[in-house]
Amino acid sequence: MIQTLLGQKDFIESLRGKSATFMLALSNTQTVNIEGITQAGIPGMIHLTPTLDSEFICTGEVRSLENIAETPKGVPTPALISRAVHLLNPYHHIELLNLGLEVTPKVAYFKQHTFELTPSASIATGANIDAEALFQKGVNFGQTYSCESDYLILGESVPSGTTTATATTLGLGYSEAKAYFSSSFKDVPNSIREETIASALKNIQNKKDLFEILGTVSDNMLIFNAGFILGLNNRLKVVLAGGTQMACVLLIINSILEYMGGKVESSNLAICTTKWVAEDKNSDIKALLEMLSFPVNAYYANFDFTLSNHPSLKLYDEGEAKEGVGAGGALMYGFLNDLNKEEITRKVEGFLG
Amino acid sequence: MIQTLLGQKDFIESLRGKSATFMLALSNTQTVNIEGITQAGIPGMIHLTPTLDSEFICTGEVRSLENIAETPKGVPTPALISRAVHLLNPYHHIELLNLGLEVTPKVAYFKQHTFELTPSASIATGANIDAEALFQKGVNFGQTYSCESDYLILGESVPSGTTTATATTLGLGYSEAKAYFSSSFKDVPNSIREETIASALKNIQNKKDLFEILGTVSDNMLIFNAGFILGLNNRLKVVLAGGTQMACVLLIINSILEYMGGKVESSNLAICTTKWVAEDKNSDIKALLEMLSFPVNAYYANFDFTLSNHPSLKLYDEGEAKEGVGAGGALMYGFLNDLNKEEITRKVEGFLG
Q1: What pTM was estimated for this model as a whole?
Q2: pLDDT of residue A305
């Protein structure tokens, strides 16, 4: 049920029956306001997506808006998958990382880590992030974070995050990566995304400082999490639950290590994504990870909606949505606790009525 | 599956997947010997009910008597529900609070907390409890109690406990509460209960000291648990698993705080009861809780026996039995761990042969 992309399955096997904290890194980037750049959410309300996703994961309710975030064609947020797994085999804890949101999630009794961050600006005009300070906040958090579970599943919800991740990776000089990035679009809107990325890259043409580059073309989630992982310093097993955005977090770490002449012990680090990302023809997560100078365990959860007839869910299998809100890691956690495809499918269908 | 009566569902949601200690507060009051006052048990043997309930919860066996406690019409104890949930998704620990029992439960390997307490006398003639000392024992226990689980579910088994709870609430001056109390009778035996309560209230006519009042009209479970909750001082998440008796525990706390001029932090406190109590036409748990001067999260487990054809279980849905032995909290715990109505129903039916 869990397929290995890189490294050994032993890492995953060692997590069977272990308790997990499901942590969701949330942020807004104004890149999302470029028309047509993403379909991850309700038109005009896409900035609310991470807020709604986290409310739904924690409580089963969407509080800052009436309906669950859906893309225009009606593909429901992958938060449904992560919540379904939680209902079937609860995560030990759910925690939120508020990395700059327009609207704070309305949940009580769940730990919300805050860092006095505001949404970043559009990368088309310059993200305007103090990347060094943000990275340092991540490092500090990693150094002091006390996990009450056996391991951490780190997911994200950042609308238009694949665009910022692509710009970041290219901006860091991984030029061969251009073709390796996915989007939440089926028909990858190459023109709008490419224009945006081209504008972003133009903004760093004369920049050489790594943090200056990151602060211009990246987003809060990517930069903070790179610091977070480095700050943890391998003392906790972490599964990055995501696709190309989480791969970008690792590439940022890679660049920072190179820039600073450091090394990272990565034996406790893994990434797990969905089958929809792993088999995506418009991106290549494995190739992205193979650019790293340190080893990383990489997996995908062999789950799809072939057992469902629900038209909204069939769209996943048609490539309309692929990953997000920790879905890949959530499915991994489900499989490690003996959930099967049928149970998860039925639970997700239950949300759709 | 879990409905909110007061407060937010977030409290309950934060308990998904968490480990729970199921603690049962047990006591006898000689009020039970007034003929017709309760049907919670076998006629002539009703004092054994808490002993048998706790033996059954822990071991699946009734050791101090041959048959499970049943009411005259054959309604089986709600211990069946709490035990069924334990078999399907075990509580992390089961612990017993012996708060004055005629017969000590015959169980080994389960923690039995004892406090050198004897059953209280009938409230018709005066309960004769040293309430201040008993309350203090509760406070001390709360201050020193070490819970090995993520949260505590606190249930009770006290035959004729709704009568003592009603007398206690009225004795404390919550006069509008008269209509808010349930009994385990369908056809509420107003005459016998009201006579008993009237006698109890006559006994405190000239009393003004809060503890003197409690010592005359209350029972050990109510007074001890009020101290226990205050002693815990919000350092542990606690779900009071019960109906109007647990509401009375909270009203005692409310009166003590008023009496002593103190405050309580109640964010980690909740009460969860059954649907049979929540929808009872002869009582109003929500109205009882709304008399508190501090906020409390309140829920009920949306469970009934509509999936069963067993005549004994149908009696629950007809109002013959409503709550007890932590059934409401047990069902909540079951639902938080993805048990469904069907599974629980079948397991309960399995006990009845």
Answers
A1: 0.90
A2: 97
CATH value at residue A157: 3.40.50.10210
Whether the per-residue pLDDT at A118 is higher than 90: the answer is: yes
Is residue A249 classed as helix, strand or coil in its secondary structure? Answer: helix
Give how many domains chain B has, as a whole number: 1
Put simply, the answer to whether A89 touches B18 (Cβ < 8 Å) is no
The H-or-E segment that residue A141 falls in is helix A131-144
Give the pLDDT confidence score for residue B43 in this predicted structure: 78
CB B227 within 8 A of CB B257: no
Q: What is the pLDDT of residues B190-206, one digit of tens each?
A: 678 889 999 999 999 99
Q: Is A110 on the interface with B (CB under 8 A)?
A: yes
> Looking at beta carbons, which residues of chain A come within 8 Å of B337?
90
pLDDT < 50 regions, chain B = none
CB burial readout A65-80, b (16+ within 10 A) else e: beebbbbeeebbbbbb
Q: Mean per-residue pLDDT for A209-215?
A: 97
CB-CB under 8 Å, B9 with A59 = yes
Q: Is B10 on the interface with A (CB under 8 A)?
A: yes
Query: How many C-beta atoms surround the C-beta of residue B121 within 10 A?
Result: 17
Tell me the ipTM for this assembly.
Answer: 0.84
Measured in angstroms, the CA of A351 and the nearest CA of chain B are apart by: 14
Cα–Cα distance, A175 to B183 (Å, whole number): 75
Q: Do A58 and B10 touch (CB under 8 A)?
A: yes
Per-residue pLDDT band at A14 (split at 50, 70, 90): very high
| Tokens of residue A236, six digits | 């906790």
Judged by a CB distance cut-off of 8 A, whether residue B33 touches chain A is no
User: What is the secondary structure of B3-21 as a DSSP string?
Assistant: EEEES-THHHHTTTT--EE
